[in-house]
Write a structure and sequence with these properties.
By secondary structure, the protein is an alpha+beta fold. It contains four helices and eight strands. It has a four-stranded antiparallel sheet, covered by helices on one side. Strand 3 and strand 4 form a beta hairpin.
């Protein structure tokens, strides 16, 4: 890789389209299950407040309502993001390139984002490989304290990027890239990350 000034990883469109459907179904299913659990908890708490009025149980019922409310909120947020994501898919073509590496940094195309994310190597730890919805995906790992306003960073503030790079704690992370949709194997991508970042970035499987 010594002579290379850029390293490009392209995307298999068919694999991504299939993955989109898997994620859509998985997110909707888990969102409704989460909503049902939250709703049942809130109903039980309200019933306890009415049925056992004056028994001193109201603090526990209130705590249960407060504990269940984030579950319902996560469902609303997940379904809202999924609707926005589907609208983007219908209006925009899939980018042919997943990401590029150069001595300057890492440039990422995020599904649903109008423009790429640009990250200097000082802001990147690499990727974490995990299994989500039955398939291996790559999650972007940023250096501690890195945000959209950090020096040299561009594009992290896009809603579609925030949904996968720094997802809400209420949402299940779905990964930035499906491993089998990339035209380079994981070990080659890992080598390229180490090469261009000077050994600071790589792919972890912990």
């Amino acid at each position: 890789m010594e002579a290379q000034q850029t390293f490009v990883v392209s995307i298999d469109r068919d694999a991504v389209v299939q993955r989109r459907e898997v994620v859509r179904q998985g997110l909707r299913r888990s969102a409704w299950v989460t909503a049902a659990i939250g709703a049942v908890g809130i109903i039980v708490a309200l019933y306890a407040l009415i049925a056992f009025r004056g028994s001193g149980m109201w603090p526990f019922a209130l705590l249960l309502i407060l504990a269940m409310a984030p579950l319902v909120a996560s469902t609303v947020l997940a379904l809202k993001l999924e609707k926005e994501r589907q609208g983007w898919y219908e209006q925009n073509e899939l980018p042919p390139v997943a990401f590029r590496m150069s001595p300057k940094g890492l440039e990422l195309a995020c599904d649903g984002a109008p423009y790429p994310v640009s990250l200097p190597w000082t802001t990147v730890q690499g990727f974490k490989q995990e299994k989500v919805f039955g398939q291996f995906v790559l999650h972007l790992e940023l250096a501690p304290g890195i945000a959209a306003t950090s020096g040299g960073v561009r594009g992290l503030d896009q809603p579609a990027v925030r949904a996968v790079v720094k997802p809400s704690p209420l949402l299940k992370p779905t990964g930035l890239y499906l491993v089998k949709s990339l035209d380079q194997p994981v070990h080659i991508i890992d080598q390229a990350l180490k090469h261009f970042s000077g050994g600071k970035a790589g792919i972890s499987t912990r």
